[in-house]
Structure prediction request, 77 residues.
Amino acid sequence: MVSGMAAERKKLLLRLDPAVHDALARWAAAELRSTNAQIEFLLRRALADAGRLPREVGPQRRPGRPSTKDKDGTGED
Prediction:
């Protein structure tokens, strides 16, 4: 993250088998995440498990809607 400012989020087109997408969407809904947030969660976990998650990666947003105090979406007040 850039000192105090949120880094711009990268956009990615991802083609998935419809059954895989449906399974991800159901899993995401069960954890109160969007499908996009669930994919990011899984990618971060895979990178961390492989020892490849960069140190400068900021925290992922918590599941659910940001609180009114949490304007930047980081989960920090």
